[in-house]
Specification:
The complex is a heterodimer. Chain A contains no helices and eleven strands. By secondary structure, chain A is mainly β. Chain B contains no helices and eleven strands. In chain B, the strands form two sheets. In chain B, strands 2, 4, 5, 6, 9, 10 and 11 form a seven-stranded mixed sheet that branches. Chain B has a four-stranded antiparallel sheet with strand order 1-3-8-7, with no helix packed on it. Chain B is globular.
Chain lengths: ~110, ~120
């Protein structure tokens, strides 16, 4: 069964501090992993996906198959990064996206 | 490109009443999803369509929820009769079909916030 866990419901950091949002998953095959973000009063939108291996808004995430993790990192948090972050998994047979419970990131001035 | 459109944005109904939500996906997206997001939780899949066929409805409470995508484009989700625990945001998303070689990310609509009183 596909499952995504995000252990932190709320993460507060000061502006300029590093931030790491944790995501672990369970899936028997080779999944696609995504990070979605929801800013206040906006729709859920893709932040990044592991296949593209890119940095978006300073965020990066590396898929660690050994630890079944896909943690989201940013070296210097900005106030505009405050939002809800959801880790999501999609199986390799076109299955639906399974979302974690989300982590609310609050970047303090 | 135009995004996923949903209506209404908000709906308040009494328990045991019925309600319907509408979704217009991004043009060309064969896959359409309906998710339920209860406050404080991540989105949970209700049903997935590929064109006008159902791919996965294993988590859809079929005694009260129904969904259709008759022409493989727009979709409606209905709840009849509604219960208090159905209060949630109902999200519609669409994506290209799997294994098309393009991005298969899901694009989400703004959602419909349902309150059952």
């Amino acid at each position: 069964a596909q499952r995504v866990t995000q252990p932190e419901k709320l993460l507060s950091v000061f502006k300029g501090a590093p931030v790491e949002l944790k995501c672990n998953y369970s899936y028997s095959g080779s999944p696609e992993l995504f990070w979605y973000v929801q800013y206040s009063r906006q729709r859920l939108q893709l932040l990044l996906r592991h296949i593209s291996r890119e940095s978006i808004k300073g965020f990066t995430a590396d898929l660690n198959k050994g630890e079944t993790s896909f943690h989201l990192k940013k070296p210097f948090a900005q106030e505009e990064d405050s939002a809800m972050y959801y880790c999501a998994l999609r199986g390799n047979y076109g299955q639906n996206f399974v979302f974690g419970p989300g982590t609310r990131l609050s970047v303090l001035p | 490109e135009a995004g996923v459109a949903q209506s209404p944005r908000y709906k308040i109904i009494e328990k045991r009443q019925s309600v319907a939500f509408w979704c217009n996906p991004i043009s060309g997206h064969a896959t359409l999803y309906w998710y339920q997001q209860i406050l404080g939780q991540g989105p949970k899949l209700l049903i997935q369509f590929q064109n006008n066929g159902v791919v996965d409805d294993s988590q859809l409470p079929k005694d009260r929820f129904s969904a259709e995508r008759l022409k493989g484009v727009d979709s409606t989700l209905k709840i009849q009769p509604a219960k208090l625990e159905d209060s949630a945001v109902y999200l519609c998303a669409s994506s290209l079909a799997p294994r098309t070689g393009g991005n298969t990310e899901a694009f989400f609509g703004q959602g419909t916030r349902l309150t059952v009183v």
